[in-house]
Task: inverse folding
């Protein structure tokens, strides 16, 4: 233990060491430093005529052996906390949407018109084909949850508050829904390349 | 700044899970705590048992210590309650009147020797006192003045610097060197791990 550390120990005893220095001093505390602290304290009490009396050997050691480490609060990584908060917020929005956004006066059994329509592929036009309507048309009826990328509405900021459940369910969870491309009312599917595009288009038509 | 600031810093460290800080608090207050408990319990060995129990209780409760009172006041109350509970558990009657914390701090332990204190212990205590005071007397004047103003008068570094007309850093150094000189004489009388823990 060098002289600087011993001087810091002396300053700590007098409350003249700041928090950071105290932390660093304690981090490097060894048995020698702790014993020296004990003797400094003992001498101070003698000087103040407090009459310290000898204690049994190992008094403090016995106390320290008996204390268990303090229970620490489990600290979640910031990222996890951030995600958790975001999830909770999203769940709250979803629940509020379910409770609040059903338009008043509209019968429950009437489904709104489909918001997405598929277009038939042009035969042999591209390796990326638009899916046939019968197979892939997705309607956003009441009670159905739609994928955010398929959502054909304007950006959420511009949507009226009473637009309907389908406008509020998912887009808020996915920033991609605000992307201009997301508003295109079509469904794109990737299909394998075929040698004869016309033949493939004919099969799809049947 | 003062001793209570030192306690606050150490308590804050304990509350963050640093047990070394609690070790320093135990070593700082062990004699005083046993001393105040000895006002309730006559047997010196029993006093130490109760004091250890009080430290454990303090450790378990330190998370709830908010600094409304000074640490020594808080831990002394724990010690007194532990001593009274101990007496009740033993079927003995605790004193009806409490000892004021301020009185407990100021009490002169040497004047309250118990029957369990052996002549050997008393001889050792006297030898320690004589050694400490003789060492202080032999210090250079600037060191002696600094350590006396600090330990006996309880002045802060700033106050001592003003009184001695020197920088605070010089005060800190003088007090440290005085303590080192005392410690050099005291250490042979207090073998490691013995008597002062």
Result:
């Amino acid at each position: 233990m060098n002289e600087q550390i011993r001087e810091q120990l002396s300053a700590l005893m007098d409350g003249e060491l700041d928090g950071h220095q105290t932390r660093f001093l304690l981090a490097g505390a060894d048995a020698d430093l702790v014993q020296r602290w004990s003797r400094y304290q003992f001498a101070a009490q003698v000087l103040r005529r407090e009459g310290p009396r000898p204690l049994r050997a190992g008094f403090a050691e016995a106390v320290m052996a008996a204390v268990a480490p303090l229970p620490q609060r489990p600290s979640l990584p910031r990222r996890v906390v951030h995600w958790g908060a975001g999830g909770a917020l999203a769940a709250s929005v979803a629940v509020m949407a379910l409770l609040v956004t059903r338009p008043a006066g509209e019968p429950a059994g009437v489904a709104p018109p489909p918001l997405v329509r598929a277009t038939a592929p042009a035969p042999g036009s591209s390796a990326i084909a638009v899916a046939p309507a019968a197979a892939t048309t997705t309607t956003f009826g009441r009670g159905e949850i739609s994928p955010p990328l398929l959502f054909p509405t304007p950006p959420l900021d511009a949507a009226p508050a009473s637009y309907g459940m389908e406008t509020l369910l998912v887009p808020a969870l996915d920033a991609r829904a605000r992307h201009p491309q997301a508003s295109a009312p079509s469904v794109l599917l990737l299909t394998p390349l075929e040698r004869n595009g016309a033949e493939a288009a004919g099969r799809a038509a049947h | 700044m003062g001793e209570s600031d030192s306690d606050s810093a150490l308590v804050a460290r304990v509350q963050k899970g640093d047990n070394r800080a609690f070790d320093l608090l135990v070593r700082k207050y062990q004699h005083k705590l046993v001393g105040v408990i000895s006002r309730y319990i006559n047997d010196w060995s029993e006093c130490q048992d109760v004091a250890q129990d009080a430290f454990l209780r303090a450790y378990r409760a330190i998370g709830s210590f908010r600094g409304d009172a000074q640490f020594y006041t808080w831990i002394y109350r724990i010690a007194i309650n532990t001593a009274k509970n101990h007496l009740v558990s033993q079927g003995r009657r605790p004193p009806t009147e409490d000892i004021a914390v301020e009185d407990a701090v100021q009490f002169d332990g040497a004047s309250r020797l118990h029957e369990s204190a052996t002549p050997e212990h008393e001889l050792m205590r006297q030898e320690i006192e004589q050694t400490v005071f003789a060492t202080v007397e032999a210090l250079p004047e600037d060191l002696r003045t600094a350590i006396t103003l600090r330990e006996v008068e309880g002045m802060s570094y700033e106050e001592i610097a003003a009184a001695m007309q020197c920088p605070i850093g010089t005060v800190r150094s003088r007090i440290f060197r005085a303590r080192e000189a005392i410690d050099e004489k005291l250490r042979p009388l207090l073998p490691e791990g013995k008597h002062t823990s």
The longest helix of chain B spans residues 119-138. The radius of gyration of chain B is 19 Å. The CA atoms of residues 143 and 174 of chain B lie 5 Å apart.
